[in-house]
Amino acid sequence: MANCQLVFEDSFLVKRFAQNYLNCDTDIMYSAIKMSAPWTEPSNPDLKLRGHELARQKFFLNKSEGLILSSDTPLSQFYKYSYPGFQYGSLLSYRALQTVPLVHYFNASLEEHLLFNGAQVTLNHVIGTMYRGEADNISYHSDSLTDITPDTPIISLSLGETREMHLGRVHPKDRKKTIFEKAVVLEPGDMFILGPRTNVLHRHAIATVKDERVIKRVPGVPIGPRISLVSRNIQTIVSLDTVQQEVRNTNKRRLQPKKPKNKKKVKKI
């Protein structure tokens, strides 16, 4: 594949993939997805991380069999990806992949033509993320392996504003810290293939603009939004009945009064 750059041993950057291989105008693709995708509200309690709103906005799509009438048609089963902070209520925001045609076209094209380690890829789960401005980001992390089909890649397509992805390794003395290794500039239409070995051995992040290391910004030029489409092959399937029961359990826990924190006793001298 032309314009394919090796990043780590099983991870690759494909420059201008949307333009050269999908024959897409990335401005049109960006605008259409921004307008038509089923974006969730960051204030939704089922999408918060430890009670805090994420510094980004999301939508979720699943491959679905059968006739899908509209984006309001509920799914009867779900490919569940348990990312950090996952709550079952978020699955009720999932919609069928076919309801966003350009995302469906991206996934179908990869499944038809892309080989990874000699095998065709399967992609049944998509998370779209909007980095709304220069402060929106995602910190260093590795994708959870619990629900991802083993030895499969995680594939992302960038649209809109150019941003930096940083890759790093775990600090040998403090696992909460990450040592920066490399910056990858993601321009509109670029595709990044994150291999399973890279995901285990390294962490990745979308940096805030102020933390960028490579891009030379022009002072005073505003930073626009960026959309990323991240596709995975998920092996965990749950039914609508299971999701609804888990949501009821979560709502019951939320209604329970919080236990007061134990006040430390002050010793009298």
Explain how this protein is built:
With 269 residues, this protein is an alpha+beta fold. It has a single domain, classed as Alpha-ketoglutarate-dependent dioxygenase AlkB-like (Jelly Rolls). Helices cover 19% and strands 30% of the residues. It is built from five helices and 16 strands. It has helices at residues 17-20, 26-36, 101-113, 196-201, 240-255; strands at 4-8, 11-14, 57-62, 77-79, 95-96, 115-116, 119-120, 125-131, 138-141, 154-160, 163-171, 174-186, 191-194, 203-206, 226-232, 237-239. The strands form four sheets. The protein has an eight-stranded mixed beta sheet. It is globular, with a radius of gyration of 20 Å. The termini are far apart.
Write the layout of secondary structure elements.
Elements: E1 4-8, E2 11-14, H1 17-20, H2 26-36, E3 57-62, E4 77-79, E5 95-96, H3 101-113, E6 115-116, E7 119-120, E8 125-131, E9 138-141, E10 154-160, E11 163-171, E12 174-186, E13 191-194, H4 196-201, E14 203-206, E15 226-232, E16 237-239, H5 240-255
Parallel strand pairs: 3-5
Antiparallel strand pairs: 1-2, 2-13, 3-8, 4-16, 6-7, 8-15, 9-14, 10-13, 10-15, 11-12, 11-14
